[in-house]
Amino acid sequence: MNEANMLDMIKKRRSIRKYTDEAVTDEQLRQLLEAAMAAPSGNNVQPWEFVVVRDPDLKRQLAQTHTWSYMAADAAVVFVVCANERASHHWIADASAATENLLLAATALGLGAVWVGIYPGTDREAHVRRVLDIPEEIRVLCLVPVGHPAESKAARTQYRESKVHYEGW
Ligand SMILES: Cc1cc2nc3c(=O)[nH]c(=O)nc-3n(C[C@H](O)[C@H](O)[C@H](O)COP(=O)(O)O)c2cc1C
Fold first, then answer.
1. Tens-place pLDDT, residues 64-76
2. Which of 92, 104, 164, 167 is deepest in the core (most CB within 10 A)?
3. Pocket test for ligand 1, best of 11, 62, 78, 116 (most atoms within 8 A of CB)
């Protein structure tokens, strides 16, 4: 991918919450996970862990985590992005970087995805932990439902000059 395509891809990434029934292939799954694990991490510790969920009943249970996780039920696959908090104080930043890479890779593959927040909701995290039998030292950052898009959204940035401070505040 050339530089222009990469910058286009960043703007093209949008939260896609509706999916068709088409499957995500094993090859695509691997590409998404490789992209996630290409992310930077503090001291290169890579504390991330990923639970890949394709089972319809488990997806339905994940969809019930909170009001805005419903799309997990219809996604071809749900990635549960976790990290070992005992491995690194940077686990939130590291798992977030991996999540953004996953979202961008999904866009590049023509798939749709959305970041569904779990951390810092303790009840949300407890629910996901219970459904997937996740050990206590493993924290759950978010869910990323992925599927073939059944909605389209315009590419965009949300650039605002007022957010930028040159040479100090
Ligand atoms: C930390 C975080 C948590 C989010 N949680 C949810 C969520 O629980 N459910 C959801 O539908 N979208 C969630 N989103 C997606 C945002 O709503 C979305 O990124 C924002 O509205 C901007 O739209 P865009 O992604 O299409 O640019 C979350 C995004 C982030 C970064």
1. 999 999 999 999 9
2. 104
3. 116
- Between the CA of 144 and the centroid of ligand 1 the distance, in Å, is 10
pTM (two decimals): 0.98
Distance CA 147, CA 24 (A): 6
Q: What is the separation of C-alpha 7 from the centre of its chain, rounded to a whole number of angstroms?
A: 19
Model confidence over 12-40: pLDDT tens digits? 999 999 999 999 999 999 999 999 999 99
Question: 135: how many CB neighbours lie within 10 A of its CB?
Answer: 9
Please name the residues in contact with 142: beta carbons below 8 A apart, sequence gap of 6 or more: 80, 81, 95, 99, 115, 116, 117, 118, 119
